Amino acid sequence: MENFKIKNCVIIYNPVSTGFNILALDKMVKVIKEHDITPWVTKSIHHGNIIDLVKKVDSNDTLVITLGGDGTVKEAYTALNQIEQKGVYAHIPTGTTNDMARNYDVKHKKPYKIIEDILNGEIKTFDTYSINGQIAAYTAVFGYLAHVPYVTPAYLKKRFKYAGYLMTAAKEMLIKPTEYDITYKIKGVSKRDNFILGAVSNSKGFAGINLYNNASLSDGKIELLLIKNMDSKLIMKIAKDFINNKVDLSKFSEYITLLQANEIKLTFNDNFPKYAVDVDGENSKIIPSYADRDLVFKMERPVRILKTRK
């Protein structure tokens, strides 16, 4: 395992994630023991607790595994950006959309099968980045429908999983998109236009759909996606493709700006989003305003990951 000897494995689980099942822990512990690794299990007891727990247990011979949604990964990455990482990190998705599952090449749904793949996996170094100083694991989205993941009621996510998001999105799609006058600055070059949606990501996709299957997660760059307004028929077509996970950005090139860089600055020149930027499916509480019009994205400290082999 690339000269990294694992002696201990700490499982940190988020008990409120929609797909978590306490019974799965026993099977996971059994698999870990079969690999001659000492297992430890601990529970996250409140929002943000994973940050403290990861920092506490990270050590030279330790694999730290989190169980939860994409927001759980965000907390783990935040912790690992605040320390000099000594061990390795892995994640088992038990959330709703589980976008990070694609980035980690997860092949199974059952946690004990995922952990078997992880323990027989490969170590990779993944990029992380920040938005106005706040760590993001894989995506930051603002504008049209961007707030749907964090305004969808918990009971809808728990009962209907991904379909719960679609129920909320359907209501929001009845509202005309707001256009934002945005200046984007990349590599010292600035351009200005009107957009309804923006996303900065380091991911193969987000919101449950595949967008950048060939994206590198360790190239020191992030992707900027800006989408212009379009007529209602085209929006409905995209929505249909979205539901069927068949969104092809190349079909809408005249409406899309897609760029890569290690630092991106967006400035809102006129109006501002009603809702905060969605960072990894959660409310970041970052909202541009007249006092601070900018969203600044920068590469941060990379994270050492143990993941499934492709």
SSE order, one letter for each helix or strand: EHEHEHEHHEEEEHHHEEEEEEHEEEEEE
Strand order of the largest sheet: 7-6-19-16-9-10
Specify the CATH class of the largest domain.
Mainly Beta
User: Which runs of at least 5 residues are low in confidence (pLDDT < 50)?
Assistant: none
Mean pLDDT: 87
CATH fold-level label of the largest domain = Tumour Suppressor Smad4
CATH architecture of the largest domain: Sandwich
DSSP strand content: 25-35%
**Residues in helix, %:** 25-40%
Main β-sheet description: 6 strands, antiparallel
* Radius of gyration from the alpha-carbon trace, in angstroms: 20 Å
Q: Could you tell me how far the N terminus lies from the C terminus, measured between alpha carbons in angstroms?
A: 15 Å
- What is the count of helical runs? 9
Protein architecture, described:
With 310 residues, this protein is an alpha+beta fold. It has two domains: 8-128 and 302-307, Rossmann fold (3-Layer(aba) Sandwich); 134-299, Tumour Suppressor Smad4 (Sandwich), CATH 2.60.200.40. 25% of the residues lie in helices and 31% in strands. The protein contains nine helices and 20 strands. The strands form five sheets. The chain has a six-stranded antiparallel sheet. A six-stranded antiparallel sheet has the order 15-14-11-8-17-18, with no helix packed on it. A four-stranded parallel sheet has the order 2-1-3-4, with helices on both faces. Strand 3, helix 3 and strand 4 (88-93) form a beta-alpha-beta unit. Helix 1 (24-34) runs parallel beside helix 5, helix 2 (49-57) packs across helix 3 (70-81) and helix 7 crosses helix 8. The longest helix has 12 residues, at 70-81. The chain is globular. The mean pLDDT is 87.
